[in-house]
Amino acid sequence: MLLLVLLFCGLTLAQDSLEATDTEQTEKASVGYPVVGDILRELGAMREKVGALENRLKDSEQLIEELRSREKSAVMFSAAMDGGGDHGPFNTNKILIYNTVLANVGAAYNKFTGIFTAPLTGVYYITYFYHAGGGNPANLSLIKNYEMVALTSDHGSSHDGADNGGNAVLINLRQGDQVFVRMQANSHVYASGRMTSFSGFLLSRGWEEHST
User: Fold this and answer.
1) Any keyword Transcription (predicted)?
2) Residue 3 above 90 pLDDT?
3) Looking at the structure, do residues 85 and 26 belong to the same domain, yes or no?
């Protein structure tokens, strides 16, 4: 009887040992070889990450193109007269030539002629200033294609040691339009020390003309 009990206990222990071994092997297999559902979930997560990266890449490419477009459309210039002291008076009108270029993005200002030629159609901000002695008049006109756009003026006076003046406008320009500063006959400015200047920049590309 005792022998039968011992034999039964031995068989039970052997069965438990085999079941434990099978469980361990199953767990190892589960860890080493994920089920298909887990693989699909991982693939889905990877697709989402790749999609997010693709969207970010597209946004970056679009931003780069916008920056390149802005760079191509940037137009600005600033120049001053530097050297020569008193400039004028002359008995005829003179285009002022600002020989010292401080900035010329877009290369639209010509320092040899004093003329700015609009490279793009749009709205521009143009400004000019002068310094002059007070004994002679100073009359400067901003000209667009030989038509006056703005004027700054000061009469001569023996009681006035020096004058400063200027003007500024927002102006519609088409590609190829020319803008310059014209000094009227019998006027003068001071051409040294960069006190007399001419500047402008493209504010907005294109514009709509409305008939009235």
Assistant:
1) no
2) no
3) no
pLDDT the model gives residue 29: 43
Sequence length of the chain is 212
Nearest C-alpha neighbor of 181 from the set 87, 105, 84, 75: 87
Looking at residue 112, the DSSP 8-state letter turns out to be: T
Q: Give 3-state DSSP helix, strand, coil % of the chain, rounded to 5.
A: 35, 35, 30
What's the pLDDT tens digit per position in 67-89?
555 556 799 999 999 987 888 78
> CA distances (Å), 34 to each of 19, 42, 44, 45, 85, in order?
22, 10, 15, 15, 88
Q: Which of 70, 87, 104 is the last residue of a domain?
A: 70
9 inside domain: no
The reported pLDDT for the residue numbered 8 is 43
Residues near 152 by Cβ (< 8 Å), separated by ≥ 6?
128, 130, 138, 139, 140, 165, 166, 167
Is omega for the bond preceding 89 within 30 degrees of 0, making it cis? yes
Tell me how many domains the chain contains: 2
Name the nearest CA neighbour of 190 among 97, 88, 78: 88
Cα dihedral 122→109→125→183 (10° resolution): -130
Task: Phi first, then psi: give them for residue 136, nearest 5 degrees.
Answer: -120, 155
Can you give the pTM of this predicted structure? 0.64
Q: Does residue 14 form part of some domain? A: no
